Amino acid sequence: KAGVTQTPRYLIKTRGQQVTLSCSPISGHRSVSWYQQTPGQGLQFLFEYFSETQRNKGNFPGRFSGRQFSNSRSEMNVSTLELGDSALYLCASSKAGTGVPYEQYFGPGTRLTVT
Amino acid sequence: GNSVTQMEGPVTLSEEAFLTINCTYTATGYPSLFWYVQYPGEGLQLLLKATKADDKGSNKGFEATYRKETTSFHLEKGSVQVSDSAVYFCARLMDTGRRALTFGSGTRLQVQP
């Protein structure tokens, strides 16, 4: 079974630009979550999508947004990039439903560098 | 609160040494607890989990027991290998209704031959 895939793996952008990152979950997983990993703040939860709806949200500004498609693939978008947005962005997928043990499986991440 | 606290690293051990990485959490209830491992240049891999008090999670020689009395979930391995060198993250499920994880700051383990 293929794991979580993320594209692109590396990205360099300039301040003020916007960026879109993509995530394909494990087949059969309907929930996709996004996390930001930085040396200073560690791993922080951005948001979770399930059935094309944002179900949970972390404490990030509105410049960070996402969406999920009917095939459970997800994208996240960051507008008006700032230097502090440089990070590893991790996507995780999980099965969703009552009675299912909650486990998240992570992709390799997209390394975003803002210059 | 929703926090997870891990011992600071790096932890440097010789091959075949015993490993303990401490993890404590704050919670009003009994959230599911997890250990993830991150190898250089990769994402996080689920190492083990425990979903209720007194549960013991185990995988690849690693173990952790959910201790509600001490709100701890320490990671242990009896004999580490060089290939275990990585960063280890303790995590808890956020409060009820939020299907997301809160992570500790990570502990880097370096195993020397």
Characterize the structure shown:
The complex is a heterodimer of chains A (115) and B (113). The relative contact order of chain A is 0.33. Chain A is globular. By secondary structure, chain A is mainly β. In chain A, strands 2, 4, 5, 6, 9, 10 and 11 form a seven-stranded mixed beta sheet that branches. A four-stranded antiparallel beta sheet of chain A has the order 1-3-8-7, with no helix packed on it. The model of chain A has no long low-confidence stretch (mean pLDDT 93). Chain A is built from no helices and eleven strands. In chain B, strands 2, 5, 6, 10, 11 and 12 form a six-stranded mixed beta sheet that branches. A four-stranded antiparallel beta sheet of chain B has the order 3-9-8-7, with no helix packed on it. The radius of gyration of chain B is 14 Å and the shape is globular. The model of chain B has no long low-confidence stretch (mean pLDDT 92).
